[in-house]
Amino acid sequence: MLENKKSLAQSMGITRTVVRAMEEVDLKEREDRIGKYFKKYLSKFVFDEFSEEYMVKAGIADIMRGVPIPLRKQDLKAFAGGAGLPAVHIAENMAWVMGCDPHFQYTEKYVEFLKKLFNHKIYEGMVKEGRDSAEEGDLDAACIHFRASLCMQPDYLHGMYSYARACRAMYLQSSNPEYVGRFKAEAMDYFELLTEAHPRFAQGFYYLGYAYLNIGLYVKADLAWREFIKFTRNGKDRKEIKHRMQQIADPIQIEHGYNAVLSGRYQEGLQILEPYLETQFKTWWPLSYYVGVSYAKMGKNKDAVSSLLRVLSLNGSHLETMEELVAIFGAQGDKENEQKYKKKIKIIRENMRIDEEEAEKQRIKKQNQKKQNASVSATPEPEEPEHETFRPEVIEEIEESKTSKGESASNEKESRKTLKRLSKN
């Protein structure tokens, strides 16, 4: 009987109930991929301690004895004597330190102290401060406050949503490849975590779908948007997303074809992919690549070579394609063409090595320059991106319309209403 009993979530129609380990969901424990962009703000703080008398009187001696208190330089005079600053001011300083570096040695103590003094209202206030900073265009301050709220309460809906949205806005404004990559990954992670922790919150699925779309994960985008349609009450947004789903119907099928080839189901993959060679998708070089691989695995070497050469006409430095050609020509005994592509592979790899060495030299040079000018705050310089993500042209049009014009007005209005409920409580 008990085994068949539905949980409350299941009885409400919620099927995406996921429980992750704390090191994946808690900023204080998970890898901090964007924290290095905020640590420069820590130089604005100095540290002191509460007096023993004040801690005993406030009942916080067991929490705060030996714990340094972050103070801005202008706070020092007011803090003299132990309790010369309002508690909310100290809380704001702690929020900055936690938000800049959730792994800070005393973050847990700050969380315990703030919960004792302010209960849940403190992390709600942090989100409000973050929203106010975002309205003023200070996305760093906004992101720091949202991170601080998540140090206080890792699954706080408004904190998770605001943080993911802030990360998204920040990478859309940057041209630094490393910065974009880190913030994009963080945004997608938190939209995923948001949908897992709050599976009835439609806006999480709305943005998660676009996050998947922008890295070419069309099947996942479709699945996320199906959840959005299930829970949203906004008719205009539902119409928008249904239109997007129609636009990615063919890319979804192509992705199924790729997966079939990767799983060794070459005939099935070809049946899906070949018809698209006569459509607008014929310029997608991965389409020709996976078709060529399938031909080669099925012994159709002439067709394989033709398809793989088409890949190189679209992406002339694709090493995997050249390696396939080397294998085919080697098996055929065509030494001339085998050596031709082996030489090309060697040249490309050597050029990549030289580029990487030059990039490393430039990175070290810039780091040394920063050390010599340590008094001047600077944004970390761009490094070489780790890899290139294929983004089909037909989808770029969708992405550009989304990122350049902004989301639909109705969606933005709904999002702001959702976020501002807190300030009315």
Please name the defining characteristics of this protein.
Serine Threonine Protein Phosphatase 5, Tetratricopeptide repeat; 22 helices; 425 residues; mainly alpha; elongated; disordered N terminus
Walk me through the topology.
Blueprint: H1 8-11, H2 22-25, E1 45-48, H3 52-58, H4 61-64, E2 69-72, H5 76-79, H6 87-100, H7 107-118, H8 121-135, H9 139-152, H10 157-172, H11 177-197, H12 202-213, H13 218-231, H14 235-247, H15 249-262, H16 266-273, H17 285-297, H18 301-314, H19 319-332, H20 335-372, H21 393-405, H22 409-424
Antiparallel strand pairs: 1-2
Would you write up a description of this structure?
The protein is an all-alpha fold and 425 residues long. Among the domains are: 11-198, no CATH class; 250-356, Tetratricopeptide repeat domain (Serine Threonine Protein Phosphatase 5, Tetratricopeptide repeat). Helices cover 67% and strands 2% of the residues. The chain contains 22 helices and 2 strands. It has a two-stranded antiparallel ribbon. The longest helix is centred in the C-terminal third of the chain and has 38 residues, at 335-372. It starts with 7 loop residues before the first helix and ends with a helix.
Entry summary:
By secondary structure, this protein is mostly helical. Helix content is 67%, strand content 2%.
